[in-house]
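Protocol step 6 of 9: fold each sequence in the batch and record its structure tokens directly after the sequence line. For illustration, a two-sequence batch is reproduced in full.

Sequence one:
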Amino acid sequence: MMSKRGQRVMVLALMVMLLSAGPVLAQTGGTYDLTWGNIGPGGASSGGDYTMEASAGQPDTGAASGGAYTLMGGFWPPAAACSLPGDINQDGSVTVLDIQAVAVEWGTPTPAFPYDQDNDGDVDIQDVMLVAAHLGESC
């Protein structure tokens, strides 16, 4: 067991080490500058007839190319947006909520798309019916 004096010395030494810690940067020199970095989630690359996709924590270097190939680091592109006729609230399905959204705009003096489905300058039964025709569809 350590004596009280030894414990005090140990605590004092730990406090000095913790309080004197500064930032630690990667080494720099020559044509390299490694003072910061980024770990990206993966990405995709294509060239010629080939496409490579990867998803793993990896150093993100930006664009790297050679010959006919280019590799871009970064995030995966977002999924293609679902475009569905009559999906007024753009939630991926046509429901009563979409019909209700058009009905609420009934009689609006200067309606805008998507409420004026037939683009005739007003929101009326025709617009409600155009949305209702797609009721239950989803993507």
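Sequence two, same batch, same settings:
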Amino acid sequence: MKRWQFLMVLAGMFLLAGCSGKKVPPSEVYIIPNFGFSIDIPEGWYTRPHDNGQGFRTFELEADYREIQDKEKMEGIVISLEHRSLDWLNRELGLPEDPTLNDLFQMNIDNVTYMVNPTIEEITLFGVDAIKAEAYGAADIWGIMHMGIIEDEAFLLLVLAPSEEALEEFKPTWEAMVESIKPVEE
């Protein structure tokens, strides 16, 4: 499996749609489409919303931004957020009705191929209880995933790196990005 395919499968828990080519100026606070929150993106990154309006991706490197679907190996950090209705996840991926965080986590495990660090942390993200876990895949991608449920939607926020060392080096920046998340009025 190619590295980009693994990235798509991991984020594919929510069947990510394609992204438009609209670039957000990297020094701006990014307002997450149709989600009511913003996140600070590091200066110099390349960010675009999903065509379906259900999230975004941001890329450390322009090469990954432009060629992510044509490359075997991502070279920099990639961040993705996808949010989907619980009804859609129930219908398409078998998420139980009235799901718990554990149900959401189990659905993720059942629908993608990766290994999860057995240490799962309960956190608060987007103003709700969430789960944080580290994961790695056969395609040599390391990542941190955050998932939770806001009213009638579930979210999956991922940071993916091309190596374990790159992920470790990026963690302080990632933690600052997560701390920067704020509610906004759209």
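Proceed to step 7 once all outputs are recorded. Observation for sequence two: The radius of gyration is 15 Å.
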